Amino acid sequence: MNIKIFIVAAMILISQSVFSASSRPHIVILATGGTIAGTAESNTQTTGYKSGAIGVQTLINAVTEINTIARIDGQQISNIGSENMTSDIILKLSQQVNALLASNDVDGVVITHGTDTLDETAYFLNLTVKSDKPVVFTAAMRPATAISADGPMNLLEAVTVAADPNAKGRGVMVVLNDRIGSARFITKTNSTTMDTFKAPEEGYLGIIVGGKPQFENRVEKTHTLRSVFDVRNLKKLPTVVIIYGYQDDPEYMFDAAISHHVDGIVYAGTGAGSVSVRSEAGIKKAEKAGIIVVRASRTGNGIVSSDKELPGLVSNSLNPAKARILLMTALSQNKKPVLIQNYFNTY
Ligand code: SIN
After folding, report:
1. Residue 112 in contact with ligand 1 by CB distance below 6 A
2. What does 1-59 look like in DSSP terms, one character per residue?
C-alpha cells in the first residue's frame, strides 16, 4: 500500500475509535459489596456463602459487554454484606455520587449493593443526590460463583438503564431481574427468591426487554434535584432507632433509646400504626425528652395517617426502615415536627 494512503486510512480508523469511545456515555460503577460480589465453595451453594468477597474490577471484567454500552470506570466504596452497612458509609456514598455527577465527564452512576438493605441506601440517595443524571442500584440473589448467577445480567441491565437518555430525572432506580423500580417504593419482599424486589402498591417504573429499557411510570414523590436535603458537607447523620410493636411490647425499649440519647425513633406499629398502651407511654416519654417519634406500620404496606388521639408523627406510606432513613435525613437539616411531618407527606 502507498505510504500516504496507509497514513490516511490509519488516521480515519483512529479518529473513528476516538469518536465512538467519546460518544458512549461515561458510567461509573461504585461497588459496596453484597451477594453480587459473593463467593461460595460450590456452584450449587446459594445460602451461607460469603458476600462482599470480590472487588469492583472483577465484577466489571466478568461482563465485558458493558463496555459496548458505556465507557466504564469502577470504584470500591466498601466490600461488606449490607447488614453491616452504616450511616457513615451511605453518607460517604451519597457525597461521592454527588461529586461524580457534578462532573461534565460523568453521565450516570451504577451502585452494586447487598440486597438486604439496598432499599434503605437507595432511598437515602433518592433524597440526597443533587442531579437528574441516572443513579441505578443493582444486586444479586445468587453469589457470583453459582450456576445461573443473576449478578452479571443485573449489572449489564443496570448499566443499560444508566446509559439510557430516558432514564434522566426519574429519581434513584433499582434494577434487578429485568425490572426497573423506584428507590422510593421498592423493597425486598422475599428472603431467597430472585424476584424479591417489589413495590406491591405502586408497581415498577419499567421493564427491560431485549436489552432495552422501556419506561412506563414516573414517581410523584419529591426526589433528587427537587429535594431540599443537602448532605454534601455533612459530617455525621443523626441517630434514629426502630422499635417494633407486638403483643406485650415493653415500655423499657423507649427507656433504652432515651438513655442512649438517640435523635429519633421510628415505632413500627401494628396495623395502621396503632400503638399499645405501654408503647404510647414510651412515645410520650421520648417526646418529653425532645426525641422525634414517627409511627409507621409493621405490615410494610399502606398508609399511616395522623390521629389526634395518638402521639408521634406518622410515616405516610414509608415502611419502618425507609421512615428511619427519612427521619435521619430530615433531622440533619432541622428539628421542627411540623416541617418533618410535611417531609413525610411529600418525599
Ligand atoms: C447482603 O445484603 O449483603 C447479602 C444478601 C444479598 O446481597 O443478597
Report:
1. no
2. --HHHHHHHHHHHHHHHHHHHHHS-EEEEEEEESGGG-B-SSTT--SS-BSS-S-HHHH
Cα 23 to chain centroid, rounded? 28
Identify the pLDDT of residue 3.
57
DSSP for residue 195: T
Which residue in the list 32, 35, 46, 145 is annotated as catalytic?
Answer: 35
Q: What is the pLDDT of residue 20?
A: 55
CA of 174 to the centre of ligand 1 (A): 14
Decide: 138 in ligand 1 pocket, CB within 6 A. no
The set of cell numbers assigned to 151 is: 449478578
What the chain holds in terms of domains, given with CATH numbers, is 24-226 (3.40.50.1170), 240-346 (3.40.50.40)
pLDDT value of position 279 = 98
Q: Which residues pair with 71 in a beta bridge?
A: 26
* Of 83, 137, 187, best ligand 1 pocket probe by most atoms within 8 Å of the beta carbon: 83
Residue 148 to residue 179: CA distance in whole angstroms: 18
Q: Is the pTM of this model over 0.70?
A: yes
Return d(Cα 47, Cα 24) in angstroms, integer. Answer: 38
Decide whether any atom of ligand 1 lies within 6 Å of the 279 Cβ: no
Classified as helix, coil or strand, 268 is strand
Per-residue pLDDT tens over the stretch 30-71: 999 999 999 999 999 999 898 899 999 999 999 999 999 999
Q: 115: Cβ below 6 Å to ligand 1?
A: yes
Span 193-214, mean pLDDT? Answer: 97
> 86-142, pLDDT tens digit by residue?
999 999 999 999 999 999 999 999 999 999 999 999 999 999 999 999 999 999 999
Confidence band, pLDDT 50/70/90 cuts, at residue 15:
very low
Q: Which is nearest to 185 in space by CA: 173, 167, 168, 193?
A: 173
**Residue 85 near ligand 1, beta carbon < 6 Å:** no
- For residue 35, indicate whether it is catalytic: yes
